[in-house]
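User: My collaborator sent over this chain with a note saying "see what the structure looks like." That's all I know about it. Can you take a look?
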Amino acid sequence: MKVTLEKNPSWRWGTLLIVALSLSIGWGIRGNFGHEDGAAFAGCLAAITVALMSGREDWRNRVAYFAFFGALGWGLGGTQSYMQVIAYAQSGEALSQWYGYFCLFIMGFLWAGMGSIGTAFPAVAPMERIVRIFKPLLFIFAAWLLLDIIEDPISNWLEPNVGFDTTWYRHENPLYWFDSNYLSAFFALFGLGIYDLQERHGEKNRLLLPVFAVAGSLVGFGTQFILRLACGEDRLASAVTYLQGDPTYINPTTGQQAYAASDLLNNWPQFFGDYPQHIGWLIGLVAGITIYFLIYGKFRNGASLFAYMAGGFLILFLAFPVLGSNLFTRYGGLRMTPPRSDNWAGMLGIFIGASVWLWRNDLRPVAWASVIGGTIGGLGFAGAEWLKTIMISFGNSKILAWKGILPGTDKYNSITSAWSNWQSQNWHSFFEQSYGFINGIAIAVALGLLASRIKMHKKDELAGQVNDFKYARWTKVFATLFVIFGITYFNVVENVDTWSQELNHNNIWQTLITLPGGATKTVATQWDFPYIGRLPGIDFLHMSPTGWFNLSWFLLVAASLIIVRRHMRQSLSIIPKTSLSKGQLIFIIFLWIMIVANFERALPGFNYSRLLTEWVIYVNAVITTVLVLILPVEKEDIIISEPESYKKHYQKSWILLIAAIFISSLFFTVTNRLVYHYPPSHELDLLKSNADHTRFGTEADWRSKPNLKNSKGK
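Assistant: Without extra context I'll predict from the sequence alone. Here is the result:
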């Protein structure tokens, strides 16, 4: 017997609305904070509401895991760079526009696909598998912390006289490589390797790792030495290297060559060119260690999932932008948004790696949900951009010009004046929140399909097993505290920089100092400890604004740990008893921390245009708070109908995906051009505005706007 819509809480209008609103709120805030941390917040909110609204007690009991893994899954997509792809869709050049919508779909698919995997994993996996996966994950977190500590010192050691930064001159960092997160993938594998070694502490083959490492280094060194003797080193380097730009490009304004070939970056990290004598043994070292773990590695307790994902990132990154681009240099290579980030290739590798692992490890419903959610997310990303362009067509100067209403005429001035407020709205925020809303629908649909197809997880499924893990109960505690204080911290701490720039009156937040040699540098002002920091002879009891923020946050976390530890010994009255009420409490705390923090971030520079972002987010948060408290019912009956196989479902979902990407990208392109009536490509003036971007043609970005050495980045 199949579940009817009335009997399945996941298909009620209230469920779809609250999940969609939750992700919309998160995505609007993500637009302010950006990147992985902002996306993690959005995915976390939606994952909590999916669990609470499902009517399934087993899912509600796992709400902390839904929040944790949902955040991780959605956070991964935040590494992708997409603003230039949006600009392609608005460029007016037909092929670039289609390409823009097509790539927006791909990015949206990967983003929502991984978000669906993160959200569906705790819904499907046995509790034992969920609990066990935390240990290797903590090793990855430790490796990323190590990377954060050592990356800049190593970069400065490799290039001591280069003044790179993390924004406009990041391409001068010797470790820069296509603006990607390859180091994060590499260090994830490093952490997993350490984990695997300690898990196999009784096996003698651990002693073979140094042998493989040394042997690989010697083989790599010897190979490079032989190539050098045979005069083949330069030929090999030339065969696998290409310039990120077109040295024959002529600046149409000056009629001169725009830049020299020597000013262009290539497809390898900068330190490869600075230290070519070390390339052979380094590659050999990595290859030797990789071969060792391929032979002897066990990667137990779910560590293999992360190995598939990180390995997939590096393999696809090398296959497409790094090496595959050599075959397409006339078109800027296999790069989605040159000269911006190529993390899209890594994300594709992560998705493929995760999908293969899920299929091999009897978690096929998760793989199926990822394609369903990803397809809706892809349509949402491209569709939200298309909807935005339709909305801003009213009173648009480009359309007026097509109609023969030229700038300077009375009619032109009258129309543009009447629509000026409409045109000046924060339309990018409209795009962000609309896309977030559709992503919420994607998660609601993907998990709704699973809610009536996945058998109920038994309460005693781990009797006599979980108790053997010292950290079993603490995984739920860790997940909860990571969500409430971890994800929020990584977002809210960014406010300090905003306040430092917006409120720096009388050098309260930042101070300009003069370095030896006359150069100046802006540094954080040091704030003294109250009372004791101002005693005579004491000049060390002070911290930067960020330091004070970190100390304050640490005290809050410490207090929470004390409370939780006490609660685990003897229940505290303030902590709710039921899974539903606990999930609601987590949601309310998590949501309103970020609502307040988001308003604090915007407040120093607040103006009426921010109403489309902050006020709409606030209203949606109020609505969502009401819904999350009144809609879920404590006990509901759900009829489960498990399919015999997910293979046919999975195949059909891929057919639907392929059809959706081609039909939608064509529809969005054609209808946009019917509305805007762009002139022929050869009449488009792409030189007047930096906002005009194209992927193809003589003025394509990779030709006309490449990143140049010692110049401000793009």
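A starting point for your reply to your collaborator: The beta strands are 510-514, 520-524, 527-528, 542-543.
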